[in-house]
Design a protein that fits this description.
A: about 350 residues; alpha/beta; Rossmann fold; 2 domains; two-stranded antiparallel sheet; 12 helices; about 45% helix; about 20% strand; elongated; B: Alpha-Beta Plaits; 3-stranded antiparallel beta sheet; 13 helices; extended; nucleic acid binding (chain A); methyltransferase (chain A); SAM-dependent_MTases_sf (chain A); PrmC_N (chain A)
C-alpha cells in the first residue's frame, strides 16, 4: 500500500520533472533569440504582475499538503526572477513575470504541489552563512543541523588548529560552514554516494574553500573505516550527522523525504544507530587522545548512546554531554576519546 | 601693536571673514585670553593627570589647540618687527627681512586656520558611539510615504558614503513602494555629529506620481536622531527568551523536510516580540531577530532613561527643533533649500538624493555653522580668570 503510494507520487513528479527539464533546455537554446530584443519588445500586457500570478496557488499548495505556503511562493518567485531572496518584498509589489518566467513559475509550483522539495526545485539552499548547491539524490541539510554546527563552532572558535573529519558529508554543508566560519580548521570528509561526493567538492570550489577541504568517496565498513590513503590518519575532531531514522519509522516520513531524498542518508537500521555504531568504532581508531566526536542524532538517542558508551566503550570513549536543539529536543552528543 | 598692523595687512582675507568685532577673530582680546587659559589648563593637566581618565580625555581634546597655539607663537617670534626693519641700515638686509616676514606671515595665516579648526572641534559635545535614525512619513498621505522612501534611500547611501555601519530594525512599507516609517541603528563615532543636523521636518513640493490632475502637492517627512550613550547596554538572558518557529510540534531532523525558516522571538520580561523571515536560513533569521530585539530594547531603554532625554535635548539645541521645517525639496525648480543657513540652496535634486558629495557638503556647512555658534556661546559665557585679566 505504502509502496504503491510512493510509486504513484514518483511517477507524477517524474512527469513534472521531464517537463521542467525540457523547458530548461529549450530556454538555454532560445536565449540567443530572446536577448536579441524580443524580450524588450513584449507588449506590456504580456507582462504579468507577480501579485496576479500567485493568485490561487496558496490554496493549491495547501490542498497538496504543503505548509508554510507563503514562504514557498516567495522562494520560487525570487528564484524565477533570479533575485536574492532577501531583496524580494513580501507582498511582491511592482514585480512582473515575462511569459517565459510565468511558465517556469507555474511548472515549479506544479512540482512543489507534487511535494518535490523546495530546495531541489530552486537548486540551491542557504545553510548558516553559505549557499549550497543541491542535487536530487543528495540529502538536504535541516534547520536543526545549523544549530548543531553553531554549537561545534562555539566550542572550537578559540582552538588554534583543528584537523577535522566528517563522516557522511552529503552536500558538504557541515564541513563547509565550519571552514567558512573558522580559518584554523582543515577538513577531510568521506561520503558513500558518488553524486554527493562530486557535489560536495563542487560546493567547496564555489565557496573558495577547496584548499582546506578534501572529500573521498568511501563506504564505511567494519575494519575498513577510512579509505586506504587515510588508514593511519588521526584527527582532533570528528563530526557526523549519520542516518538515524529507524526502519519502522519510514512509513511516517513526509512525501518530500521518502519520495525524493536518498534513503541511504536516512536509514539507521532497527534502532537508528546502525551507522552511529560504526562511527564510534571509527572514532576509537582515528581520534587523538582527548579528541572529540560530535554527533547529531534522533531525539531518543542520546540516553541510549550514553548507555552504549558505558557498556561497550569503557576506557576508550567517554560520554561528555548531550544538548538540545531549538525545539527543545535532546539531539546532539559530545563524546571524548580517552 | 606693530605686529598686529603687519598681521592686518597679511591676513586681510581672514579679517574680512571675521571682522574684528567677531568674537571668533584671533584679534579678539577675549579669544586671546581664552586661548591662553586653555594653554595653562593643558600644562596644568599634563603635570597632574596621572591615572585620571577624565583628565586624559580633556588633555587629548586640548592637545590640538595648544599645539597649534604654540606653533603660532614660534612663528610670531620669527617675524622681525617693523621697528627693527626700520633701524636696519643695510638696504639688502632690510629687503631680506621683509621677504622673510612675508613667508612667515603666509605660514601664520595658514596656521591660524588650522587653529580655528581645532578650536571649533573643541565646541563639539559629547561623543556617542551610535544613534537611532528614524524616518517617518508626515502630512501628505501616500505621496509623503513615497518621498519617505526616497529619503530613506538617500540616507542609507549617505551612511555607506561615510563608511558607517547601519542596521535597519523596524520598517513598515506600503503597497505602492512607499514607506510609513523606518528605524535604523547607525554606528560610527562621528555619525552623531553629522546626522543630528538632519533631524527635523523635510518638506517636498512636487506633482506626485499618484496625482491625476497634475496639481503640485506639499508633503512632509520627519527625521529623528536619538543618540545612544556609550553606557546603554542591554543584557538578554537566554532563559528570558521564547523562540518560536512555524513548526510547533511533530518529528524533526531527518524525518521531515520542512524549510521552516521564519522565526519569532518573545522577550518574556518585557513582552516585546520580534520576527524575522527575510532569510532562507533559520539560524540567520534567528540572529536577525536577536539583533532586532536588542535594538528594540536599547531604544526602549533610551526613551525611558534620563540620560538620553538630556542627550536628545542637547541634540536639539539651536536649530535642531524636532518640529521645525529644516529643508525643502522642490522638484519643479529642481532645487533643495536648507532653511537654517544662508546660501543653503543647491540645484540638481537627483544628484542630491543620491546621498553623496552634495549632501555631505551641505551637512559640512551646517556643522561649521553650528560649531561657530557653539564657540561664540562658549566665549560669551567664559569669564577670564582674575590673574589673566590683570596681566593685560
Amino acid at each position: 500500500m505504502f509502496k504503491n503510494l510512493t510509486r504513484s507520487v514518483r511517477h507524477l513528479t517524474s512527469r513534472a520533472l521531464t517537463h521542467y527539464n525540457y523547458a530548461t533546455s529549450t530556454r538555454s537554446s532560445g536565449t540567443s533569440s530572446s536577448t536579441s530584443g524580443c524580450v524588450r519588445n513584449y507588449p506590456a500586457k504580456q507582462f504579468v504582475a507577480v501579485t496576479k500570478a500567485v493568485e490561487g496557488w496558496v490554496q493549491k499548495l495547501e490542498d497538496a499538503g504543503v505548509h508554510d505556503t507563503e514562504f514557498n511562493l516567495k522562494c520560487i518567485v525570487s528564484h524565477v526572477l533570479k533575485r536574492k531572496f532577501n531583496t524580494v518584498p513580501d507582498n511582491f509589489s511592482q514585480l512582473h513575470f515575462n511569459p517565459k518566467q510565468l511558465a517556469e513559475f507555474e511548472r515549479f509550483l506544479e512540482a512543489r504541489c507534487a511535494r518535490m522539495p523546495l530546495q531541489h526545485i530552486i537548486g540551491e539552499w542557504d545553510f548558516m552563512d553559505i549557499t549550497l548547491k543541491t542535487a536530487p539524490s543528495v540529502f538536504i541539510p535541516r534547520p536543526e543541523t545549523e544549530e548543531f554546527v553553531r554549537l561545534v563552532i562555539v566550542n572550537y572558535k578559540d582552538v588554534e588548529h583543528v584537523n577535522m573529519l566528517e563522516v557522511g558529508c552529503g552536500s558538504g554543508a557541515m564541513s563547509l560552514s565550519m571552514l567558512h566560519a573558522l580559518p584554523q580548521v582543515e577538513a577531510t570528509a568521506i561520503e558513500r554516494s558518488k553524486a554527493a561526493t562530486v557535489l560536495a567538492a563542487e560546493n567547496a570550489k564555489l565557496l573558495g574553500l577547496q584548499k582546506r577541504f578534501q572529500v573521498h568517496n568511501h563506504t564505511m565498513e567494519e575494519d575498513q573505516y577510512l579509505p586506504e590513503q587515510l588508514q593511519d590518519k588521526k584527527y582532533d575532531l570528528i563530526i557526523s550527522n549519520p542516518p538515524y531514522v529507524k526502519t519502522e519509522e519510514f512509513q511516517f516520513l513526509h512525501p518530500e523525504v521518502v519520495v525524493y531524498e536518498n534513503l541511504n542518508a536516512l536509514d539507521g537500521g532497527s534502532d537508528g544507530l546502525r551507522v552511529a555504531r560504526l562511527v564510534f568504532d571509527l572514532a576509537c581508531r582515528h581520534l587523538h587522545s582527548g579528541g572529540k566526536l560530535w554527533l547529531e542524532l534522533g531525539n531518543e538517542h542520546p540516553p541510549l548512546v550514553k548507555t552504549i558508551m558505558h557498556l561497550k566503550y569503557e576506557g576508550r570513549l567517554n560520554f561528555v554531554g548531550s544538548y538540545y536543539d531549538q525545539y527543545k529536543r535532546e539531539r546532539f552528543v559530545q563524546i571524548e576519546k580517552v | 601693536m606693530m605686529l598686529r598692523k603687519l598681521l592686518n595687512v597679511r591676513c586681510g582675507h581672514l579679517v574680512r571673514r571675521w571682522s574684528s568685532s567677531d568674537p571668533l577673530s584671533l584679534q579678539n582680546e577675549k579669544l586671546q585670553s581664552y586661548l591662553e587659559s586653555l594653554r595653562l589648563e593643558y600644562y596644568g593637566l599634563r603635570v597632574n593627570a596621572t591615572g585620571n581618565s577624565r583628565a586624559y580625555e580633556r588633555l587629548s581634546q586640548l592637545e590640538g589647540v595648544v599645539n597649534a597655539l604654540e606653533q603660532r607663537r614660534v612663528l610670531e617670534r620669527n617675524i622681525t618687527s617693523a621697528k627693527d626693519i626700520e633701524q636696519e641700515k643695510d638696504e639688502d638686509m632690510r629687503k631680506l627681512m621683509e621677504e622673510e616676514n612675508e613667508v612667515y606671515a603666509d605660514l601664520l595665516s595658514k596656521q591660524e586656520e588650522t587653529m580655528l579648526q581645532e578650536l571649533l572641534s573643541l565646541a563639539d559635545d559629547e561623543v556617542y558611539p551610535a544613534l537611532i535614525f528614524g524616518v517617518n512619513a508626515g502630512a501628505g498621505g501616500q505621496e509623503a510615504m513615497l518621498f519617505a522612501q526616497e529619503l530613506y534611500e538617500m540616507y542609507t547611501s549617505y551612511f555607506e558614503h561615510m563608511g558607517w555601519e547601519y542596521e535597519e530594525f523596524a520598517r513598515e512599507t506600503t503597497d505602492i513602494g512607499g514607506l510609513r516609517h523606518a528605524n535604523v541603528m547607525v554606528s560610527g563615532a562621528d555619525a552623531f555629529h553629522w546626522l543630528r543636523f538632519e533631524a527635523g521636518v523635510h518638506r517636498v513640493q512636487r506633482v506626485p506620481a499618484t496625482e491625476k490632475s497634475g496639481r503640485m502637492h506639499t508633503s512632509t517627512v520627519s527625521i529623528t536622531v536619538i543618540p545612544r550613550p556609550a553606557d546603554v547596554h542591554v543584557h538578554i538572558a537566554e532563559k528570558d527568551l521564547k523562540i518560536e518557529t512555524k513548526r510547533a510540534s511533530g518529528a524533526g531532523g531527518q524525518h521531515v523536510n520542512t524549510t521552516d525558516s521564519a522565526v519569532r522571538i518573545v522577550h518574556l520580561p518585557t513582552g516585546l516580540a520580534v520576527e524575522a523571515q527575510s532569510e532562507r536560513s533559520q539560524l540567520k533569521n534567528r540572529e536577525l531577530a536577536m539583533k532586532r530585539l536588542q535594538a528594540r530594547l536599547v531604544q526602549q531603554q533610551l526613551e525611558s532613561s534620563e540620560a538620553s532625554k538630556q542627550a536628545t535635548k542637547k541634540a536639539q539645541q539651536g536649530s535642531l527643533n524636532r518640529n521645525e521645517k529644516i529643508r525643502t525639496y522642490n522638484f519643479v525648480q529642481d532645487r533643495v533649500t536648507d532653511h537654517r543657513i544662508q546660501g543653503g540652496t543647491l540645484y540638481n535634486l537627483d544628484g542630491f538624493l543620491k546621498g553623496g558629495e552634495p549632501l555631505t557638503g551641505l551637512v559640512e556647512k551646517l556643522q561649521l555653522e553650528h560649531r561657530r555658534a557653539r564657540l561664540r556661546d562658549l566665549l560669551e559665557a567664559w569669564q577670564p580668570p582674575q590673574k589673566a585679566a590683570n596681566k593685560d
